[in-house]
Amino acid sequence: MEQSPPTTSPEDTTQPESTIKILISTDNHLGYNENDAIRGKDSFRSFEEMLAIGGREGVDFVLLAGDLFHHNKPSRATMYRTMSILRTYCLGTSTDQRISLVECNLSSYRVCMSALSIGDGTINFQILSDQSLNFPNFGQVNYEDPNINVRLPIFSIHGNHDDPTGEAGRSLAALDLLSAANLSDRVDEIEVFPILLEKGSTKIAIYGLGNMRDERLHRMFAQGHVRFRRPEESPDSWFSIFVVHQNRDNRGRGAKNCLPESFIPEFIDFVVWGHEHECVIEAEESIKGDFYITQPGSSVATSLVEGEAKPKKIGLLEVRNNNFRLRSVPLKTVRPFKMAQVCLRDHKHLDPADPKVADKISAVLAVKVRN
């Protein structure tokens, strides 16, 4: 596998029809800190910017790696803002913009793979997999519904923040609210069935695994209880993408509270890793050298850690046959966040016995922030 889809040349005018362009993002955390007068709209601004970039770049679809919402029971204000943004940027044509969301589980656990929508009104790829497995509520992806004008699909797994929970005898996720309004489809089916897409000569298999408790998932992988179903016909001709939302074992520590790279099947070509908020968007070769990993990171800072202070980006992935190219796009609406350390022992005038030491420390920190 080579990390570069071929560039289009005048002699090869068929290549654009075989290039699948994907916008990659994760951990949007819509609704984070929504009651804060200053930061309450940050998550929505970045999400809206992301959709605008997708439309401008003409991507075929958007791939999200979990935690679209910050809470598994979003407030009415968050749901309203989310649906308003999707209505503006998603369904319909440029003069008739609506929204569609399809959610499906891709494993016998709660693997929630969903499809939203944006674009120019033309879907240039086909789904070849059994849609009754991917989308059992209606038996098909919603952009094939003649009653809905979908502009561009968005596929997403659920994360640990917006995971399904038991309520009134059912296991429901936030996206089920959209399903009840006929704006999403949900499936329940750990046996992972891929969504199979085809555009020209390029074939992509997307495997989605929604968040589970890390220790349980580690044990199931170790015992061989997680199975990935490959296409029956010419399985090696598919570019396989694995979307996951778990702790990442990128230090080789071998702990059970993460998903080791060694558990990922060798036939996987590209992994989109959600849950980790630090942006490491550039594709990294796996420890085994069998596949590449991108870690988009969150689109909004939700904790005061060093990794959140790095620039926030999304990825534009182009796939042609078995080649790919990944380009990063910085998000401009992200609120600046800087982090630094202050060693109080370097400030000799601070006396722990001073009753006003707390005020003096605050003054030192205020000077540090201003500078």
Number of domains: 2
- The CATH superfamily of the largest domain is known as Metallo-dependent phosphatases
Q: CA-to-CA gap between the ends? A: 48 Å
Number of helices: 6
Q: Which CATH class of the largest domain?
A: Alpha Beta
Global shape = globular
Largest sheet: 7 strands, mixed
**CATH architecture descriptor name of the largest domain:** 4-Layer Sandwich
Instruction: Name the strands of the widest sheet in spatial order.
Output: 5-6-8-2-1-19-20
Reading the helices and strands in chain order gives: EHEHEEEEEHEEEHEEEHEEEEEEEH
**Averaging pLDDT over every residue, what do you get?**
80
Low-pLDDT parts are 6-13, 95-120, 179-189
Q: How is the CATH topology of the largest domain named?
A: Purple Acid Phosphatase, chain A, domain 2
Proportion of helical residues:
10-25%
In short:
InterPro entries: Calcineurin-like_PHP (IPR004843), Metallo-depent_PP-like (IPR029052), Mre11_DNA-bd (IPR007281), Mre11_N (IPR041796). Residues 20-81, 149-279 form the Calcineurin-like phosphoesterase domain. The chain has 371 residues and is an alpha/beta fold.
